[in-house]
Amino acid sequence: MGRPDDGPRILVHRRRLVACVLPLALALAGCGEDEPDGEVVPETPIDDDVGLEHVHGLGRNPADGLLYVATHFGLWRVEDDGSAERVGEHHLDLMGFTVVGEDHFLASGHPPLTDEIPPHLGLIETTDAGETWVRRSLWGEADFHALTTAHGKLWGFDANNARLLRSSEGEEWEELGGPDLLDLAVDPDDESQVIGAAGAFEPQGLVASRDGGESFEEVEGPPLVRLDWADHRALIGADASGGVWERTQEGEWEQIGELPGPPEALTVEEDELLAAADGALWRSSDGGRDWQELLRYAEPAP
């Protein structure tokens, strides 16, 4: 995404409240369901379990230190011996997976083909490490392909409606600004600073907000598809080829490492980086320079 000669292009949406959290609000907003949020999401067992593949998100559970893997076909837990175990009987296409506390995860996405669940899950939540999920908000309406938490707030890009939303409790949402986003990250020291990887199906450059996501401008940087920004760590990103990038204190981007293929997911933890690429889960203990294979779930690309 090139910068115009007359300066960065400002991308703004009118901010408005999106409320779909109570029965009356659901009925008024036409969200497709008249049941209150907080309802348990039905299990969706299937006859043919394809196993762990097509990873969307990664995160370590502070309760047990184990790695949890959100996929196109449900949630998996990587045991200490390196084996992967399915969690629960929800074969959901889990998008926007985010670990927010001990046994406490948020996600979005889609169910398998079923008449029991609408095609868009909105925001769903588990407090038992994925054994059960409950509806939190925007059930039947939103499909968050990217979710991030910082400063007690939640930002999410709803791909179904092409909008960036922000919430304090995950119930009522503000619609913010900007273009389509593949991923986004919030400065852990300043919630007004948000950076996004622009694009719908392919990277279109970086955009940055100085007002918490209400408006964005194009900024220089590599065409990233994954971003993460953890406490006391640099902003990390990955491009579509697997290149791993770090933003320096001077604001410049430097390629510091490389994954063996396009990144399906990237997560920055306190003392490690985790990624999914080329049919395997990977870990880096040196900030993204070198990567060790944790678990292979598919054959590598030829």
UniProtKB/TrEMBL annotation:
Coiled coil: none annotated. Gene3D superfamilies: YVTN repeat-like/Quinoprotein amine dehydrogenase. It comes from the Bacteria. NCBIfam families: glycosyl_F510_1955 (NF045728). This is Exo-alpha-sialidase.
